[in-house]
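Section 5: illustrative case.
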């Protein structure tokens, strides 16, 4: 971004050191950190403009879920600009102006950069230790071993996910292999993550689009949160639960709901154990709870299949055969 070095911009670390709340805040990047801090500042009273180059906020997430979150953010007073790219910034008196193609022109009192981070390993002279790396970080195998099998690495410096809980998992793999000589390997197939907005957005496994990109024909089981009694009693109806399945096997889930970060772990465990959607349906869920959303989503999908037009025609045909 031309001129970025000339302004005193914020990061997710420096944002907490502000002596006063900025009247106008521009947030570059609508990934997890960007949307979390944008909503927080908006609720504290700043006029926030959230700018994202992709067509949706949280571009790695299910587009429908991401657009639902956009509606929540806009209801909180944020201006969300997607499909927008900032190319230039410069000081304009006491403010900062951000400009880009398509007439993008935003004036702010503070600018928060939330476009992601990359591992900073180039100056460690890793070549001397026989450790290979790329722009994505240090290269490791599933046992967290580097190219030098006596050296292990874990955490954000080697990916593939920059989450504290993934770093903890990797540290356990390193401990098992390096200290106890147990051949444990990483498994990211059921790795959850949470965007801590209000309501929370949680995800594990594949989205519908990702499943189709792999050549599968997924069945999506969904529930609007407004159809859940617990959500009604707490006036928390702005949410959606989507379970992605293939031949009834759980492939993933995307949730926008209060405490979605807690709810997602039923699906995480189910995926780890190879559970099917019918296993969720068969499990008794306490009433009234948000956890019922999973069972309701499965049951409504089954009911839709049961009472599909073809099924009704078959029932009518069978009825004609009865005396």
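Designed sequence:
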């Amino acid at each position: 971004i031309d001129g970025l070095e000339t302004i005193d911009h914020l990061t997710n670390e420096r944002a907490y050191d502000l002596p006063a709340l900025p009247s106008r805040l521009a947030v570059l990047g609508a990934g997890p950190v960007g949307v979390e801090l944008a909503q927080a500042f908006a609720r504290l009273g700043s006029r926030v403009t959230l700018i994202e180059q992709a067509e949706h906020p949280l571009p790695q997430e299910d587009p429908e879920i991401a657009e639902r979150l956009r509606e929540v953010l806009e209801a909180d007073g944020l201006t969300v600009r997607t499909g927008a790219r900032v190319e230039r910034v410069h000081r304009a008196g006491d403010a900062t102006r951000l400009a880009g193609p398509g007439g993008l022109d935003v004036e702010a009192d503070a600018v928060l950069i939330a476009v992601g981070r990359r591992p900073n390993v180039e100056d460690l002279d890793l070549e001397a230790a026989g450790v290979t790396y790329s722009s994505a970080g240090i290269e490791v195998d599933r046992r967290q071993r580097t190219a030098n099998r006596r050296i292990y690495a874990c955490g954000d410096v080697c990916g593939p996910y920059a989450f504290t809980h993934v770093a903890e998992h990797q540290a356990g793999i390193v401990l098992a292999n390096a200290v106890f000589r147990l051949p444990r390997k990483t498994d990211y197939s059921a790795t959850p993550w949470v965007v801590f907005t209000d309501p929370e957005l949680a995800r594990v496994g594949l989205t519908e689009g990702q499943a189709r990109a792999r050549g599968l024909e997924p069945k999506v089981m969904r529930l609007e949160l407004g159809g859940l009694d617990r959500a009604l009693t707490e006036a928390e109806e702005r949410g959606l639960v989507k379970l992605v399945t293939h031949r009834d096997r759980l492939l993933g889930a995307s949730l926008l709901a209060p405490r979605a970060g807690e709810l997602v772990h039923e699906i995480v465990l189910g995926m780890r154990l190879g559970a099917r959607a019918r296993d969720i349906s068969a499990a008794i869920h306490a009433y009234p709870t948000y956890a019922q959303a999973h069972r309701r989503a499965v049951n409504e999908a089954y009911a839709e299949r049961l009472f599909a037009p073809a099924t009704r025609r078959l029932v009518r045909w069978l009825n004609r055969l009865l005396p």
